[in-house]
Specification:
The protein has 158 residues and is mainly alpha-helical. It has helices spanning 3-24, 29-40, 48-55, 59-71, 94-120, 125-156; strands at 45-47, 76-79, 86-89. The protein contains six helices and three strands; from the N terminus they run ααβααββαα. The longest helix has 32 residues, at 125-156.
Length: 158
């Protein structure tokens, strides 16, 4: 086997292994495979046809997968200049942005859970559960932004 073929095989195996990890954590299989394929591509961007070829799947499978990834803001869609072909891209800081959005969502969840806590009272079994949840989300809301700032500072030095 040539070195390029060995490299392609290793990349393909990585796509399948890491996709399985994502599937085990709740991702649908095809979006996981598409996402990982984009992440490991040299340019972090591929057309639907290129994705279908690399993953050996139909264009319809790619269409559904990128729709899922676009909805979660894990990939973006651009148009090739002078072409009607879409290019799908994953940004280098995609996980940072995902965590930022999740913290925002958890803050909203905590606000709504606080409403529920007031509704049922803190001394009921439901109130104790809600209080625990609110406490966790309050803690994360207070701590994660500093952690994210520290990551940005650390990453800026690279």
């Amino acid at each position: 086997m040539s070195e390029a073929t060995d490299s392609e095989l290793a990349a393909s195996q990585f796509v399948e292994r890491f996709s399985s990890v994502l599937v085990d954590s709740g991702w649908p299989r095809m979006p996981a495979r598409v996402f990982v394929t984009l992440v490991i591509s040299e340019s972090a961007q591929l057309t639907a046809a290129e994705l279908a070829e690399r993953l050996r799947v139909s264009p319809a499978a790619i269409s559904g997968a990128v729709r899922f990834l676009l909805q979660l803001d894990l990939v973006s869609r651009d148009r090739e200049p002078g072409s009607r072909r879409d290019v799908f891209r994953v940004e280098d800081d995609v996980w940072f942005r995902v965590v930022e959005r999740r913290v925002h969502a958890m803050t909203r969840w905590g606000e709504h859970l606080s409403t529920g806590l007031r509704a049922v009272g803190p001394d009921s079994p439901a109130g104790r559960r809600l209080s625990e949840m609110v406490g966790l989300f309050d803690f994360l809301h207070a701590e994660v932004p500093d952690l994210m700032r520290r990551w940005k500072d650390r990453n800026a030095g690279r």
